[in-house]
């Protein structure tokens, strides 16, 4: 059994209210970012349309016997040009 001792300051929290508290890195959970794959395609002779697809694979491995709730946050590109469309 592992024992963790730490000190932190928490803002006031009411009973039943949710709050976050980081306990650090869990070495039993591994996250692996596979290399990004890029596909490019151009279609049309007069009105050419160019399309580029980026594919990102994220592999999460849990070596614990019990399930773990995790949240993965990834930045998504945005366009300021209305001719460029970003789909997720």
TrEMBL record:
<feature type="domain" description="DUF4139">
    <location>
        <begin position="20"/>
        <end position="87"/>
    </location>
</feature>
<dbReference type="InterPro" id="IPR011935">
    <property type="entry name" value="CHP02231"/>
</dbReference>
<dbReference type="Pfam" id="PF13598">
    <property type="entry name" value="DUF4139"/>
</dbReference>
<protein>
    <recommendedName>
        <fullName>DUF4139 domain-containing protein</fullName>
    </recommendedName>
</protein>
<dbReference type="InterPro" id="IPR037291">
    <property type="entry name" value="DUF4139"/>
</dbReference>
């Amino acid at each position: 059994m592992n024992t963790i001792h730490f000190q932190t300051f928490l803002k006031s929290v009411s009973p039943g209210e949710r709050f976050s508290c980081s306990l650090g890195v869990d070495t039993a959970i591994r996250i692996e970012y596979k290399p990004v794959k890029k596909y490019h395609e151009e279609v049309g002779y007069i009105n050419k349309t160019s399309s580029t697809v980026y594919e990102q694979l994220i592999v999460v491995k849990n070596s614990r016997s019990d399930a773990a709730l995790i949240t993965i946050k990834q930045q998504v590109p945005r366009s300021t040009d209305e001719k460029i469309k970003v789909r997720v």
